[in-house]
C-alpha cells in the first residue's frame, strides 16, 4: 500500500465507521435526520404554514404537509431567488441548480444551501472514493487525475442575491481549492457554454495527462472517449491513459453501454461504480463493485446521513393520486416506489420524479427503475424503464448488438389488435437480424412483466413490437435542437404519448 493510500485510509476511518453505523441502524439515523430537519426549519415561513412545531412523528408530517412537486414549490423558490430568506430554509440560500429534466422544456431551479453542499454533495464525492479505496486498498486512483464531465451551463446572475447554473457548475464554483490539483478539466473549460466546443477543449487538454478515473453520464462520456481516440489515433483508451481503473457513472442505466465501454477500455481490472445523483440531492453509491462486469451488482447503498429524509409511495398508488407514503422502515423489496424527499436544501415532501425498488433491506439498497412520468401504460401493460433495459440488455447479449440510444412509445392501430409498442434505435453495432433482436426483446419483456405478457396473449390487445433503426445522429440532433446537449440531459426512454417519437421520426426523415 502506498503512503498516500495509507493516509487516505487513516483520514477516512471515522467516516467508514459512520457509514457502518447507518448500515446497522438505518431507522434511528433517518429518524434523527427527520427531527433535525423539522427542528431547523420550524420558524421558516414554510414551517410556520405547516405547523412544524406540532410535528412529533412521520404520521404528523404526512398529515400536516402535503406532497409537493416543482410547480407547487415554485412560488417559494422564486421568492428566495429574488432575495427573500427564511422561506424554505432558515439559512441563506443564494445558489440554484438549473435542471431542465426530460419531461418538458421548462427549467427548474433547485435551491442549494450551504448545508446541502457540505453535508450532501461534497460529502458524497468524498464517500465515493473512500468506499472504493476501502474495497481496493492497493488502488492507484489517487496517483493521477480525475476527469469529470458535467453540464454545459456557466454560473448566471439571477439577481444581486442569487446565482444559477447546472449542478456541476454550482459545485465547481464552491469546491475547496485543493480539489483543483486532482480534477480535470480546468474550470474555464468545464464551464464553456457550447457543449461541442467544450468536448474539443477537454480532448486537447486531457489526452496527455495521467487520468486514473472518469466521472459522468455514460452517454456523454462515450462521445468524449471516442473523440479522444480520433484525436490521438489510438485503438483504445488504455493506450492513452494506461493507469485508468475506475469509471464513476450515473444518470442513465449502464447496461446498454456495457459492451461499448469494455471494448474501449479492454481491462479486466477496470471498475464501474454506479451512483445516484440529482440536482435535488445525492442518494446512492454502489458499495459492492465487481471487476470486469458492470452488470454484476446488487444495487446502490442508500446514503442515510446526507440531510435527506426519505419516504416512499407505491407507484401504482401514486399514479392514482394516493398519499400513503411509508418511511424507510416499512418498505418492501421488489416493489416499485415513487421516491419522496425532504432535504437540508429546503425541499419538503418533494416528489423527485424517480422510481426505485429495494433489492435489500439489510442494508437498504436500491436500484433506479424509471421515472414517474416515463412509462408505457396505454393498454394496461405498465412497462417501466427497468423492464425495458432488462429486455434490451438480454437481446444485446444474444445478438452482439450495442445500443447508442433508444426510446419507445405506443402506436395505435385502426384494425386488428388495439396497438403495439414502437421502438426507435440508434446502434453502435446493429444486430445482423433485427427481427430476432425484437423477438428476444419481446420475449424477455413478457418474462419480466406479467401485465405486458397478458396483453400480448395471442396479439389480441398488443401486437408484436414495431421498430425503426434511425440514422446516426438523430437523437443528438433532437437534443441539440432542444438545447439539451450536455452531461445532465438524457433521452426519454419511454413515453405514454407519441410526442418524442414523432419528433425523432421527422428528424430522421429530413436527415
Description:
The chain is α/β, with parallel strands linked by helices and 511 residues long. Among the domains are: 116-302, Rossmann fold, CATH 3.40.50; 375-510. Helices cover 37% and strands 22% of the residues. The protein has 18 helices and 20 strands. It has helices at 3-11, 13-24, 26-40, 45-49, 58-64, 70-81, 114-135, 167-174, 187-190, 195-206, 218-232, 258-264, 315-319, 385-399, 434-448, 450-455, 474-481, 499-510, and strands at 95-99, 108-112, 145-148, 156-159, 162-165, 183-184, 211-216, 246-249, 271-278, 281-285, 300-302, 308-314, 337-343, 350-361, 364-371, 375-376, 383-384, 402-412, 419-429, 466-469. An eleven-stranded mixed sheet has the order 6-3-7-8-9-10-11-15-14-13-12, with helices on both faces. A four-stranded mixed sheet has the order 2-1-5-4. Strand 13 (337-343) and strand 14 form a beta hairpin. The protein is globular and about 60 Å long. It starts with a helix and ends with a helix. The model is unreliable at 291-296 (pLDDT under 50).
Amino acid at each position: 500500500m502506498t503512503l498516500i493510500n495509507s493516509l487516505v485510509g487513516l483520514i477516512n476511518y471515522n467516516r467508514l465507521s459512520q457509514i457502518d453505523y447507518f448500515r446497522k441502524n438505518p431507522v434511528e439515523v433517518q429518524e434523527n435526520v427527520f427531527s433535525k430537519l423539522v427542528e431547523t426549519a420550524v420558524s421558516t415561513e414554510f414551517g410556520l404554514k405547516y405547523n412544524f412545531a406540532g410535528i412529533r412523528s412521520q404520521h404528523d408530517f404526512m398529515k400536516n404537509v402535503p406532497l409537493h412537486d416543482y410547480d407547487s414549490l415554485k412560488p417559494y423558490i422564486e421568492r428566495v431567488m429574488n432575495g427573500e430568506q427564511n422561506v424554505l430554509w432558515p439559512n441563506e440560500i443564494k445558489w440554484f441548480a438549473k435542471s431542465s429534466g426530460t419531461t418538458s422544456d421548462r427549467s427548474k431551479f433547485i435551491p442549494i444551501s450551504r448545508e446541502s453542499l457540505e453535508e450532501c454533495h461534497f460529502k458524497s464525492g468524498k464517500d465515493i472514493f473512500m468506499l472504493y479505496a476501502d474495497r481496493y486498498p492497493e488502488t492507484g486512483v489517487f496517483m493521477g487525475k480525475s476527469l469529470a464531465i458535467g453540464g454545459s451551463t456557466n454560473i448566471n446572475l439571477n439577481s444581486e442575491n442569487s446565482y444559477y447554473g447546472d449542478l456541476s457548475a454550482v459545485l465547481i464554483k464552491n469546491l475547496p481549492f485543493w480539489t483543483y490539483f486532482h480534477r480535470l478539466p480546468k474550470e474555464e473549460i468545464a464551464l464553456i457554454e457550447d457543449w461541442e466546443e467544450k468536448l474539443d477543449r477537454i480532448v486537447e487538454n486531457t489526452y496527455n495527462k495521467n487520468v486514473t478515473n472518469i466521472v459522468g453520464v455514460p452517454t456523454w462520456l462515450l462521445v468524449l472517449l471516442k473523440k479522444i481516440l480520433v484525436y490521438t489515433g489510438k485503438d483504445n483508451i488504455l493506450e492513452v491513459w494506461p493507469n485508468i481503473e475506475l469509471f464513476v457513472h450515473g444518470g442513465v442505466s449502464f447496461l446498454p453501454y456495457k459492451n461499448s465501454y469494455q471494448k474501449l477500455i479492454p481491462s479486466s481490472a477496470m471498475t464501474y461504480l454506479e451512483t445516484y445523483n440529482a440536482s435535488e440531492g445525492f442518494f446512492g453509491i454502489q458499495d459492492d463493485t465487481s471487476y470486469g462486469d458492470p452488470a454484476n451488482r446488487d444495487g446502490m447503498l442508500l446514503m442515510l446521513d446526507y440531510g435527506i429524509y426519505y419516504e416512499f409511495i407505491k407507484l401504482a398508488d401514486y399514479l392514482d393520486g394516493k398519499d400513503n407514503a411509508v418511511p424507510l422502515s416499512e418498505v418492501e423489496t421488489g416493489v416499485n416506489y415513487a421516491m419522496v424527499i425532504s432535504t437540508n436544501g429546503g425541499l419538503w415532501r418533494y416528489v423527485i420524479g424517480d422510481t426505485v425498488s429495494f433489492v435489500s433491506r439489510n442494508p437498504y439498497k436500491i436500484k433506479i427503475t424509471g421515472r414517474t412520468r416515463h412509462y408505457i401504460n396505454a393498454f394496461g401493460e405498465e412497462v417501466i424503464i427497468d423492464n425495458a433495459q432488462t429486455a434490451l440488455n438480454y437481446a444485446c447479449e444474444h445478438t452482439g448488438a450495442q445500443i447508442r440510444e433508444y426510446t419507445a412509445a405506443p402506436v395505435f392501430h385502426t384494425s386488428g389488435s388495439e396497438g403495439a409498442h414502437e421502438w426507435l434505435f440508434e446502434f453502435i453495432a446493429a444486430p445482423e437480424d433485427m427481427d430476432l433482436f425484437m423477438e428476444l426483446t419481446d420475449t424477455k419483456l413478457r418474462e419480466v412483466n406479467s401485465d405486458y405478457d397478458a396483453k400480448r396473449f395471442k396479439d389480441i390487445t398488443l401486437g408484436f413490437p414495431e421498430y425503426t433503426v434511425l440514422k446516426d445522429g438523430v437523437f443528438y440532433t433532437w437534443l441539440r435542437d432542444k438545447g439539451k446537449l450536455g452531461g445532465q440531459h438524457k433521452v426519454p426512454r419511454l413515453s405514454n404519448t407519441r410526442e418524442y417519437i414523432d419528433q425523432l421520426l421527422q428528424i430522421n426523415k429530413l436527415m
